[in-house]
Structure formats: C-alpha cells, structure tokens
C-alpha cells in the first residue's frame, strides 16, 4: 500500500537507485519520484512488480493544463505507471469549478488509462467544503484516486481528512494519505479511516514498526 517517496529537489541518481532497491526489497506498491528520474527508475525496476509514480504540476498546481498534459505524456513515455497531479488550488478557491474539473480531466484523457491518475487536493489550503468539492470534481473528471497533500504545503494528512474524502468519493476510487505519515500506528489510522494508499518517505520505518523522520 506504500508509495516509497523521494521528492526532494536535491535528490541524486544514487538516492533514486537506492529507493528503487528498497522498494523491491520491501515490496512497496511504487516509488514516487520527480519526473526527471522516471527513466532511471524504469531501468532499475524493469521486470519487477514495483510501479513508478511521478508528480505533475508539482508542488503548486498552478501550471497550465497544457503543461500538465505534456508532463503526463512525457512521464508515461519514460515509464511512469502512476501520475500524481496537483489541482489548480487557486482556481478552486476562486470558485471556478469548471476550470478545476477540466484541468484534471485533461490529464486523465491524456493518460488514456495507460497509468493510474491520483489527484492531489492539498488539504492544508482548503476548508472542509473545498475539500469535498475538490474530491467530487476529481471523481467527476475520472481520477482513480484523490490524495491529501504534496508534502510541501501546510499541514499533515489526518484520519479526519481521509474519512471526509472517503465519504465524499464513495467506495469506488482510491484515497491516498500523504504528508507526515511516518510510523506504523499513523499508517494504520489512515487505513482505518479509508485510505487505500500511503505516500511516505518513511516507508521502511513504517514496515519495520519504527519512527521515521521523513515527510
């Protein structure tokens, strides 16, 4: 259930190779890395069951739909199997629901079922009503998952937010808890609240039942 995550801007090739090796050892769902490193991960993970998640419109969500679509297509061509895209947060808070929906839909259509699409709503910036609206728009646009956070914005994933998101989208799409999930107890609380995927740089600590230090 874990996306083993390395999204720091100063991540090196050796670090990317290392998390790929760790993901194979611990049988994580995917590695989650920046787009530049997708081709590296694809070589390291060839022939394994570990997927490759990359991030689109990250971390602000404020790039154009054209840019997000281009990023997604490029990532899939490089070997990505899952796409985590950030919504247009400013458009949502401006009440421009159609722009938000079309932004997500553009990526979903571009991916064309070649990869899983997860929509990051960045809960730390949103009111409860905005969280619900973002989740509904993502579902309407055809997203496979809704996801709490980039890990670079304010706040942390909480069981309360996961429960709200699960209640909003229903049982048919995934919910990913990301940001501040650093130990097994927290991960279990997220799953109990309705999460079907955990995004964490502390995946190994979670697997070992230890306290992690990541994001």
Automatic annotation (TrEMBL):
UniProtKB keywords: Cytoplasm, Lyase, Schiff base
The GO molecular function terms of this record are: deoxyribose-phosphate aldolase activity
- Pathway listed: Carbohydrate degradation; 2-deoxy-D-ribose 1-phosphate degradation; D-glyceraldehyde 3-phosphate and acetaldehyde from 2-deoxy-alpha-D-ribose 1-phosphate: step 2/2
What top-level branch of life does the organism fall under?
A: Bacteria
EC numbers, comma separated: 4.1.2.4
Can you say where in the cell this protein is located?
A: Cytoplasm
* Main location as per UniProt: cytoplasm
What CDD domains does its record include? DeoC (cd00959)
Q: Which catalytic residues are annotated? A: 84, 147, 176
Coiled-coil region: none
* First-level EC class: lyase
Q: Which reaction does it catalyse?
A: 2-deoxy-D-ribose 5-phosphate = D-glyceraldehyde 3-phosphate + acetaldehyde
Under Pfam families, the record lists: DeoC
Function of this protein? Catalyzes a reversible aldol reaction between acetaldehyde and D-glyceraldehyde 3-phosphate to generate 2-deoxy-D-ribose 5-phosphate.
Which family does this protein fall into? Belongs to the DeoC/FbaB aldolase family. DeoC type 1 subfamily.
Its protein name is Deoxyribose-phosphate aldolase
Q: Can you name the source organism? A: Virgibacillus byunsanensis
